[in-house]
Design brief:
CATH class of the largest domain: Alpha Beta
CATH superfamily of the largest domain: Histidine kinase-like ATPase, C-terminal domain
CATH topology of the largest domain: Heat Shock Protein 90
Helix content: 40-55%
Radius of gyration: 25 Å
Distance between the termini: 49 Å
Structural class: alpha+beta
Bound molecules: adenosine-5'-diphosphate, magnesium ion
Low-confidence stretches: none
Strand order of the largest sheet: 2-1-5-4-3
Largest sheet: 5 strands, antiparallel
Shape: elongated
Strand content: 25-35%
C-alpha cells in the first residue's frame, strides 16, 4: 500500500474523525479495524500501529473488552456501558466510559469511549460516600431500636419453651431463640463500627441457603413451596456467614411477603438457584469466576413506581415496611465485593446475588 493513502476502513469510517469522542471499530476477535483521530491523540499512537492489533491491550484490564465482545456476540445486550482505563503510550491511565455497540455490519463492533473528567468522578464518589454515611447513621439508629426489645423476646421464648409439651411447638420456640441470638450478634456488629465489621470464615453458600430456608418455612409453614436448584460444584469462599444469611433472608422474606395472593391460591413458589458464572462484569470490574445466587418468586413483581429505587433506604412498597431490608442486603453483599441485581416482571421476580469467587 502506498504510504499516506488511507486504507479502505479509514475511508469507510472517515466521518468518525470529526468527532471528539474516542472511537474504535473492532472485529469480533477484538482486533482493531479502525481508530479515529481523537483516539490516536488520546493514546499517543498512530492508527497504523493500532490497526490489526488487539484493542484490549490498550486498556489497563485487557480481558474486560474480550468479555464484553463475547457478551455482545451472544446477544446478551444491544449496547454495554462500563468504566475502564485506557493506557496511554506514556503509561498514564485515562479514565473512560466505554460504550460498546454492534455495528450495522455483522462481526463488527463500535467501541466508543468518552473521557471521564476527574472532577466528575470525584463528585460522584463523594456523593456515594455521603450517601453511605447517611445510610450508616440510619442503620445505627435502627439497630438501637431493635436491640432493646430483643432481650425480652428471647426471654419470653425461653419461658414459653419450658411450658410447651408438643415437640413441634418446641421447634418453633427454638427458631425464635436462635433468630433472636442471630439478630443480637448482627445488631451488635452494626452498633460497633470500629470493631471489625467482618467476621471472615469459609462460607458454604448452600448452608447459608438452608438456614434461610428453615427460617422462611418456620414463618410460612403452609402454602409455600421452596425449590432448590443447586450447583454442587460451587467452592467455599471467604466471607461473613451471618451477613450473607441476613442478606439472603431479607430477599427471601420479601419474596414470601409478595406471594400473599399466590399462597392463598395455593401455588406460591420460591426457588433458590445457585450457579457459577464465568467472565462476568459487575461493579465495573471484570471477574473470572463468580457465584450466582438467584432467589426467584412467582409473585406480582416489584411495583413499577419504586422499581429503580428499591435498594435505597426507606423505599418500601408495603404498609408497615421499613424499606431497609434491601439496603442492608446490598451493603452486606457489597462488603463481599459483590452486588445484588433485580429483574422483575409480573409472575417472575429474580433477585440475583453475585459474589466474586477466588
Ligand atoms: N420479591 C419481590 N416481589 C415484589 N416486590 C418486592 C420484592 N422484593 C422487594 N419488593 C419491593 O421492594 C420494597 C423494598 O423492600 P425492602 O427494602 O426489603 O423493604 P420492606 O420490605 O421493609 O418494604 C418492598 O416493600 C416491595 O415493594
Ligand atoms: Mg423487606
Amino acid at each position: 500500500m502506498a504510504f499516506g493513502k488511507p486504507s479502505a476502513p479509514a475511508r469507510r469510517f472517515q466521518a468518525f474523525d470529526l468527532l471528539a469522542t474516542l472511537i474504535a471499530v473492532v472485529k469480533s476477535d477484538g482486533s482493531v479495524l479502525f481508530a479515529n483521530a481523537a483516539l490516536e491523540d488520546a493514546l499517543g499512537t498512530s492508527r497504523r500501529t493500532l490497526e490489526g492489533s488487539q484493542f484490549g491491550a490498550c486498556f489497563s484490564e485487557p480481558n474486560v473488552l474480550r468479555t464484553a465482545i463475547e457478551g455482545a456476540r451472544a446477544h446478551d445486550f444491544a449496547t454495554l456501558r462500563y468504566e475502564a482505563f485506557l493506557r496511554r503510550v506514556n503509561h498514564e491511565l485515562l479514565p473512560v466510559l466505554v460504550t460498546l455497540a454492534q455495528s450495522d455490519k455483522a462481526g463488527e463492533l463500535v467501541v466508543e469511549m468518552s473521557v471521564l473528567e476527574q472532577q466528575v468522578r470525584q463528585d460522584r464518589e463523594e456523593r456515594l460516600l455521603d450517601q453511605a454515611k447517611a445510610n450508616k447513621e440510619l442503620i445505627r439508629n435502627l439497630a438501637h431500636e431493635i436491640k432493646n426489645p430483643l432481650g425480652g423476646i428471647r426471654g419470653a421464648a425461653q419461658l414459653l419453651q419450658m411450658e410447651v409439651e408438643s415437640r413441634d411447638l418446641v421447634e418453633y420456640t427454638q427458631v425464635i431463640i436462635h433468630e433472636a441470638d442471630r439478630l443480637q450478634t448482627l445488631v451488635d456488629r452494626l452498633l460497633a463500627p470500629h470493631r471489625k465489621p467482618h467476621v471472615v470464615g469459609d462460607v458454604n453458600i448452600h448452608e447459608v441457603i438452608e438456614r434461610v430456608r428453615s427460617v422462611i418455612l418456620a414463618e410460612f409453614p403452609r402454602d409455600l413451596e421452596i425449590e432448590r436448584d443447586f450447583d454442587p460444584s460451587i467452592p467455599e469462599f471467604r466471607g461473613d456467614r451471618e451477613q450473607l444469611i441476613q442478606a439472603t433472608l431479607n430477599i427471601a422474606h420479601n419474596a414470601a411477603q409478595a406471594l400473599a395472593e399466590r399462597r392463598a391460591a395455593g401455588d406460591a413458589q420460591i426457588t433458590f438457584k445457585t450457579r457459577v458464572a464465568r467472565q462476568v462484569i459487575f461493579n465495573k470490574q471484570w471477574y473470572r469466576l463468580a457465584l450466582e445466587l438467584h432467589v426467584i418468586d412467582n409473585g406480582p413483581g416489584v411495583p413499577d413506581a419504586i422499581k429503580d429505587r428499591i435498594f435505597l433506604p426507606l423505599v418500601s412498597g408495603r404498609d408497615g415496611g421499613t424499606g431497609l431490608g434491601l439496603t442492608l442486603a446490598q451493603t452486606f453483599v457489597q462488603q463481599h465485593h459483590g452486588v445484588i441485581e433485580c429483574d422483575s416482571v409480573p409472575g417472575r421476580t429474580d433477585f440475583k446475588i453475585l459474589i466474586p469467587l477466588p
